[in-house]
Structures are given as C-alpha cells and as structure tokens.
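task queued by scheduler; priority normal; single chain, no ligands, no partner chains; default sampling; output format set to structure tokens
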Amino acid sequence: MAVGRVRSGGQLSGAQILLDQFSPYRSRRVIVECDSRTTAAYLLDARDRIRVPVWLANHRIAPETGDPSGLYEGQAPLMPAAHTKHPQGRARFDPERLRVVWFEEGDGLALLDDDGLLAVIPGWAEADSGLPGYAREAIGRSAYAWALDPEADRLWPRVVHAEAYWDWRAVPGAWRSVQRAVFNHLNRRVGAAGHYWDVSDGHPPLIRVSERPPERHRPFTVLSTVGMCGQRMPTLDRYMADTSPYARIELALATTRPAHHAARIFRWIGAFPWRAVTWFGTGHSVKWLDNPEDRAIRGGNSAVLLTSDPTPLSGPQGHLPPDTSGLTFHGDPVHWLWIVPITRPEHLFAKEHDAATLIAKLAAEGRSWVLG
C-alpha cells in the first residue's frame, strides 16, 4: 500500500535529484534525493505514490531521536545517532557513481556505488508495514532503514543474478530464444501453429500469442502466450521462501470462437503481473479489464479464473486439455494456467469460498473449460 505522493514535477522535497529511473516494466520508479541534511531513496508506484522510502545518509550531526513521518512525504529526517555509522554526518554521494540494478521481477532493486551495495529495496519491502529496506549506512533497525551489513551476503547473489539477467536481455536475439523454446514446446505438446500475434507495447514484458487451430482430434483452438515465462513474476517472495516452483508461467485459452477475437484478452492479461506488480497462480481470479475491444468475447463475464487443471470441467466430446508440462526456463519449471471466464457472482463466490469450491460448482452446472 502506498504511503505518500510525489510532489508536482516528480520532485519530492525541492532537493537535488541524484537519480531518477523507471523499472524495465515501468510499474516502479526509484528517485534518490539529497538536501542539505540527508539523502534518501524513494520507491514509487506507477502513479508516483511513495511505496518505500529508505534513508541513505545524514550530512549533519545526528539527533538523539527523530520523527519518521516526514519520510513518507518525501522529507527525509535525520537518522538518530544510534542508527547511523556516521553520527557526525558524511559527505554527499556523487550522482555520477550511483547506479540501479532492478531485480528480474521488477518489484525491487539494489542501489550501488563504487564501494558496492549502498541500499537494497526488496519486493516485499513496504513502509507502512514497518519494512523500509536496507541501507549500508544504517545500524540496527529503524523506521528509516534496516542495516544492510547483516544481510549483504544473502542479498548479493540476487543482485548478481539480476544484473546478469538484464545483461542477457540486452543481447541481440536473446528474447527470440525464449520465444523459440516456448513455440517449439507448443508444437510438440499441442499441435501445428497458426497465426501469431504481438500483444506487447514495445517494452518488457515482451509477449506474443500463438494460435493452435482445431485438428481432427481436437475441435477447438488453443491460444497460448509465448514469452511470459521469460521473466519471473513479482511479489512471490512475500509469501514463500522458495519461489522457483511458481515463478514462471504461460497462459492458455481454449475456444471455438474466432481466434483473433479471443486473442485480444491477452493484450491486458499477459502483461498484468508486471504492470500491476502481482503474481498469477492456479486458483487465482482476476477482474476482467473493461476494454471495449474485449466486450464481444467477454459477454456476460466480468472476471477470469486461472487454473492449471481445468479437467473437472467438461470439454467438447469429452476432450481434455493438452499436456503442456515439461518446459523449464533458467532452471525453473514453466506452468500453463488455463483461462476460464466467469461471471461477477461467480467471481464473488470464489472470493468468499475458494477456487476449488467454485470449480466444483461450475462442474456441477456443466460448465465447459472451452470458451464457446
């Protein structure tokens, strides 16, 4: 939950902006500011609201106590003396020596200078929950920052991985290797390809949609994203220690409707985890974006249910979904989640109960997992 808002023009407090950078997915932004007293970093959301403020250094003599409230409005207070390595203050940072490494998920980052890690704001950091992120200059834990030193050895490998990931992404042809792996896997598991659409907007996550037309043994089209698995989904480390089994997905939709109409759903849902900074897992339900171009395919539905196993629902002539298992990417398994459109009452039912109960209800009503 956001805790503050950037002032007009993007500047937080009238201080000097040392660094201002958007995440590759453009859903997060980091600003580092310095005034005559302190330097602080601010992680902002897509609406320029401050999610996580992190104190970086005092430039004056530290007080014995402090009031952190101004930090959430872009007015960084002085760190109390007991929580800073330099209670007499230290020199300002050189903006030319600051750089950002965004995590692969895009929900967190590391700030570095010539001396190494300066600060880390993990994806699970949230100021209004008392989790401000880590700073090299900090001692112990305070509302301004937590000490980086005790966690540096644990966090550093993640920073190295993130930098290597974005270096790889910058190599010409790297993204085509993701597309090729997913595309060939679908050829083997689902069948011959038909049309192929780009549903990206020119920056990560880059996503395509592949059509697998009906065949003699399959009276429906299978549409699948191609490329979602090329980046880990955000926020998983808030909920689990080992994110690998859940981090990479592709989405699929089975339909007997015109494929080019049905494929439009992927224009918003394919990028949704990185735009909204969330994750998709089996049993999740997502409100359908009110997009005029989707209304024909949406009909009376207001949300979609995502499931890795739609077999409890019926299919045309008893057909089962194709087995898409077996693909891995960068050591993580890739899971396909099938899209099942649901109505508003069904969406509310899923929230009140759970996805398994909703699927059992839909199965009892004879609902198909194929959109027709």
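post-processing summary
- The chain is about 20% helix and 25% strand.
- The first helix runs from residue 152 to 169.
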